[in-house]
Amino acid sequence: MKKVLKIIDTASNIGAVFSAIFMILIVLLIVIEIFLRAIFNKSTLITDEYSAYMFVFVVMLGLSYTFKEKGHIKITIITSRLKKKTQRYLEIVILFIALAILIFSLYYSFKMVYDTYSLDMRADTIAETPLYLPQIALPLGYFIFILQVIAEIIKKFKYEEDE
Known about the structure:
- Belongs to the TRAP transporter small permease family.
- Its main location: membrane.
- By secondary structure, this protein is mainly alpha-helical.
- It has one domain.
- The protein is 77% helix and 0% strand.
């Protein structure tokens, strides 16, 4: 089981690395755009579009890592007053609800990418980017996030057994 959890953590870490790479690429693309406009009075014509696409990758690939590192905002005004055992059971229930929502989101995001690909939909921009390419970030991000939620559920049950 430790090996599986390590693989899931590694997948989240890889997602975080790619998230950071996409953030750097966004900054570079914007700097290039500024330079071209300031010096040559020209534009790449794709900076807005591709920055937005890459931002989707930044968010989606960073979700699971942020979750793993407990970086998402939690409102604990009610749960902090509960007993530790009750808190753990409530967290498990919430994790299963989150898992159901994420599986639903994964299914429909995959369906969206498939439909977009099969219909050969393209962005209505000068680049005419095939829309399935930026949309791939959604099912990919949801899949890694689902793995991380499953890992967290396993850890919660393992913690319960260890007591």
